[in-house]
User: Which sequence fits this backbone?
């Protein structure tokens, strides 16, 4: 039952019925016309032609189903073991052999059934040979038609998916950019800068340099699918510098990573989204400092912070997490994980190797 469902997904039943019915009529018109003009079987009048066409077309359609589903099964199995990209020559030979074998078996069954209902005037052995050849040729054509239709459908579907993914990616880029240049972050940063200008000119200059670096990085990477961990950490240090000007020693970041991981990749601004969520949703003050750690296990990045949730932040839309998952879905087979422990919140970000 599961196999039949998978075959119907590969080629829907009514679509297959329509194809086989049209295919059967065309084939029978050719065969009856050829037999008549070659003298193999004379068609006395038009009504006899129509009745023979209907009868033969129904049988051919039934035979077509008997062949089509094995054909679809062959395609289904070969797609797994001998894909067109990797083993095209082996696939052609194997598919051709199996196509002919199934056609011969079905032609024998149909011919014997037809002979039992209405015995052939010609010798049965001769009809069996002729029908086996006809069915083989027809099944090869049918197999080509099925493969062409499946290829066309998959190509159309992949283009549709690509368009959807591109639209989603554009939306994600817009959301990331909008979140980075949000009014609250800008307002808080300018307030901090205003205080620094009055009290510490050199610190204010450093603040401006880091602030400009943040927005330059955002604009440079917003269209990139991946950036190195080294570049992302450099950006994060600038982002965290601005946050620490505001929160002081009540906010700390500890990064413990080996040098060999720095050339691995991740989506741009991934770390910033995680850090921003940690700062946004937790109380940060002298009595409750927020400690954030970045470390690794194997080829994944872990960002861990102590939980001291703000009362006003009990609800979270989860947009940042969903966007992060979507961005990973487009480029990697592993997704970020968000883990709530007893006293800590941990985010796992897979790192990506590019050969």
Assistant:
């Amino acid at each position: 039952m599961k196999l039949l469902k998978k075959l119907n997904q590969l080629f829907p039943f009514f679509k297959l019925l329509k194809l086989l019915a049209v295919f059967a009529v065309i084939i029978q018109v050719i065969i009856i016309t050829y037999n008549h003009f070659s003298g193999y079987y004379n068609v006395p009048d038009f009504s006899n032609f129509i009745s023979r066409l209907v009868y033969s077309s129904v049988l051919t359609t039934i035979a077509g189903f008997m062949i089509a589903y094995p054909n679809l099964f062959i395609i289904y199995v070969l797609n797994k073991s001998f894909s067109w990209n990797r083993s095209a020559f082996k696939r052609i030979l194997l598919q051709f052999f199996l196509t002919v074998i199934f056609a011969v078996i079905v032609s024998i069954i149909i011919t014997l059934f037809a002979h039992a209902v209405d015995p052939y005037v010609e010798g049965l052995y001769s009809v069996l040979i002729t029908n086996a050849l006809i069915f083989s040729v027809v099944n090869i054509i049918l197999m080509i038609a099925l493969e062409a239709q499946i290829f066309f459908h998959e190509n159309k579907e992949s283009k549709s998916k690509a368009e959807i993914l591109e639209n989603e990616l554009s939306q994600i880029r817009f959301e990331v950019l909008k979140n980075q240049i949000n009014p609250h972050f800008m307002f808080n940063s300018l307030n901090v800068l205003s205080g620094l200008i009055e009290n510490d000119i050199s610190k204010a200059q450093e603040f401006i340099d880091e602030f400009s670096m943040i927005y330059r990085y955002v604009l440079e990477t917003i269209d990139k699918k991946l950036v190195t961990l080294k570049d992302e950490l450099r950006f994060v240090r600038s982002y965290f510098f601005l946050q620490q000007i505001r929160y002081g020693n009540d906010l700390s970041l500890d990064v413990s990573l080996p040098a060999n991981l720095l050339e691995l990749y991740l989506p741009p601004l991934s770390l910033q989204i995680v850090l921003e969520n940690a700062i946004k949703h937790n109380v940060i003050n002298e009595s409750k400092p927020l400690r954030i750690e970045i470390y690794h296990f194997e080829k994944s990045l872990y960002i861990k912070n102590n939980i001291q949730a703000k009362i006003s932040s009990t609800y979270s839309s989860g947009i940042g997490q969903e966007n992060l998952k979507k961005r990973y879905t487009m480029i990697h087979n592993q997704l970020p994980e968000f883990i709530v422990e007893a006293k800590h919140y941990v985010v796992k970000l897979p790192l990506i190797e590019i050969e």
The first helix runs from residue 2 to 10. The chain has two domains: 2-161, 181-350. The longest strand covers residues 290-297. The chain has a mean pLDDT of 81.
